[in-house]
Amino acid sequence: MSPSLTDTFPTDWSYISEGGANIVFVYQGPPNPFFDGTALRLRKRKRAAIDEEKEGREILSIEYQKQCLQRLIPLEHLPRLELVVVGPDHDAEAWLRALAAECEPHRALERKETDCIDVVQPRALLATNLVGGGGIAVEIKPKWGFLPCPTYLSDATRPIKTQTCRFCMHSHLKAQQGQMVCAAYCPLDLFSGDESRIKTALNGLWDAWIESDGIINNFKVFVRGRKIVPEQRSSIVGVVNDIADAKEALTSALLPVLLSTPVLRTLARLQRTLDALDIEGLASLCDLSAIGADAEPTVADALPPPRPPTQRTCGTTSSHTPLSATFKDCSVIVRVPDGTATLIDLDPKSIERLRKWERLDREIVAAYAAVPVRKRKACVHTGAE
Questions:
Q1: Which of 76, 98, 214, 218 has minimal Cβ neighbours within 10 Å of its Cβ?
Q2: What is the CATH number that goes with domain 5-129?
């Protein structure tokens, strides 16, 4: 019989991080051959809404990785995923509630106000603990690594979208709305393959991490298995090199890995080839309101289109877009001194989000169109992919 989470104590699991949909813990209990070196990923639900997602999401994530992602990304750059049951029905909810109570003091206020652990889920995902060990692990959420092809853009949006990348335009909109953003970070620098530009990207991420007091989710730092906040940055010094300045110590350690790993090139290529139209071009060819959940992407759909998209190929092309969105929203864990880079958070996106993405795209571009031309950011796409 396979072990269940209720074979452990909730206090054996330490809160490490969370995103919009999942919350992650690492095992720190007594020696256990099944749980040692693992991270636990649990789904969250909104406090003010009923969780309407279908049961079996964890199984879908595992099958999605086996049947789709492993055909696109080398296995050494993917985490190990394993399904685990929470426990017998009468114990599982109580165990999850106890775990939720343990982690609540460590969660950010804005997270606690909006969502919580889904305590009625029957299963969870175990993954490789990528932030453990005696070195440093950094989680980077790179976002969009390319400028769109001008072919399918309108005359009004073409000069805007082909000069300023989606991330930088979205940051402008978020800043207008009063949100904290990585204003000095451009994903095209990170994906460039150029040492000086990658360092510029890391500096921008670091500065935003400091200025936001660690709130931004594009950059997280783990030292010897524990997530640190900016005021603890001195703990970086002496772990992987002898550089006395924490920022310089970290960027100097990360640079060789980011320059040598094929992960960023692969990620940028997949983003671009699976989104050949841009959501604007897709909307001009397809009736997005008519695309339903039964058109979810398959392994075959994951391959780049063999010819320029047309009205006839619209259904298949629309299935590429959610897969591209998966690669635009994932994170990479860089470990030093191990020198490894691993992609995480590669869950499938629902094709039903296409209409939402199209509305957001229009909002982002409309906001940026109000920026005087001379003040618009010029994002340079050199194409390391």
A1: 76
A2: 3.30.200.110
